[in-house]
């Protein structure tokens, strides 16, 4: 005789919901522990119960260390994007300067206008990325 398949939907009864959370939380923490040991990984698990109580688990490292690693990866990714955007912006500016000095396109030609809108778009994206980077740097301090 097998288990009854449980429908995955919100449990209406508050007591039953809390009991289910406690049992499943234990199982999830056990699986996280096993995964950390078997695969030699850093793991951080954060949960809030229906009543708002915090539950957490971390493997070999503290949760703070695992989260800081995630923030550092995001920061490095943003820096790569920022450098790419700066490079593209410089290339567009250089191409515009060459077109204005030597090219057949006048400043009001369609390709020049497209380049201007591309530069404006890249500049806007660059500003957003710089703001995100500054926020992450403040957050890391």
In short:
The protein has helices at 14-39, 63-101, 110-140, and strands at 44-48, 54-58. The protein has 141 residues and is mainly alpha-helical. Strands 1-2 form a two-stranded antiparallel ribbon.
Q: Main attributes?
A:
single chain; 141 residues; mainly alpha; two-stranded antiparallel sheet; 2 strands; 68% helix; 7% strand; elongated
Description:
Helix 2 runs antiparallel to helix 3. The chain has 141 residues and is mostly helical. It has helices at residues 14-39, 63-101, 110-140, and strands at residues 44-48, 54-58. A hairpin with a 5-residue loop joins strand 1 and strand 2. It is 68% helix and 7% strand. The chain contains three helices and two strands. The longest helix has 39 residues, at 63-101. The model has no long low-confidence stretch (mean pLDDT 80). Strands 1-2 form a two-stranded antiparallel ribbon.
